[in-house]
Design goal:
The protein is built from four helices and five strands, in the order βααββααββ. The chain has about 140 residues and is of the alpha+beta class. A hairpin with a 6-residue loop joins β4 and β5. It is globular and about 35 Å long. The termini are close together. The model has no long low-confidence stretch (mean pLDDT about 90).
C-alpha cells in the first residue's frame, strides 16, 4: 500500500486517560469515525481495524500508563485508505516487524500480521521532542 499518511486529511483526535475504559472508548470512536467518513461497517477492513485499535490501546494501558497518563488516537481518511495512530509518551519503542518473530500470536504480532494480510502498513514514529511514539496503521478501503 503506497498511501502517505500525511496526504490524508485528519478527521478526529481522541485523547483519553490511559485506563481500561480507554479501550472501549477508542473502539467506539473508531467505529463512529468510520461511519462519519462514509465507510460501510460491513467493509472487510472494518472489523480488523476495530481489533487493531483495541489491541494498540490495550498495549498502551498495560505497558505505558506509568509514564503516559493519556493515550491519543488520531484518525485520517482519504480516497481508498483509512489510517489511525495510537500515541503514548512511554519511551519504549517496539520493533513492529520483529514482534512477529519474537512473540508470534502476541498482541503486537497480531496487529502487524492483520495489517499485512489486509495489504496495509504499520509504522512506528518516535516523538520529535523525546520520549514517546505513535504506531500508525494504514488500511485499504
Amino acid at each position: 500500500m503506497s498511501v502517505q499518511v500525511e496526504a490524508l486529511p485528519f478527521r478526529h483526535v481522541l485523547t483519553v486517560p490511559t485506563t481500561g475504559a480507554a479501550v472501549r472508548l477508542a473502539r467506539q470512536t473508531t467505529e463512529d469515525v468510520l461511519v462519519d467518513c462514509g465507510v460501510d461497517l460491513g467493509h472487510p477492513s472494518v472489523g480488523p481495524a476495530l481489533l487493531i485499535v483495541a489491541e494498540l490501546v490495550t498495549n498502551a494501558v498495560r505497558h505505558a500508563a506509568v509514564l503516559s497518563p493519556t493515550v491519543t488516537v488520531t484518525y485520517a481518511h482519504g480516497p481508498g485508505a483509512f489510517a489511525f495512530a495510537v500515541h503514548d509518551r512511554h519511551p519504549y519503542r517496539p520493533a513492529l516487524y520483529g514482534a512477529i518473530a519474537a512473540a508470534p500470536g502476541g498482541g503486537l504480532a497480531t496487529v502487524v500480521e492483520m495489517t499485512m494480510e489486509l495489504g496495509g502498513t504499520a509504522v512506528l514514529r518516535p516523538d520529535a521532542d523525546g520520549p514517546g511514539k505513535s504506531i500508525w496503521i494504514t488500511l485499504p478501503l
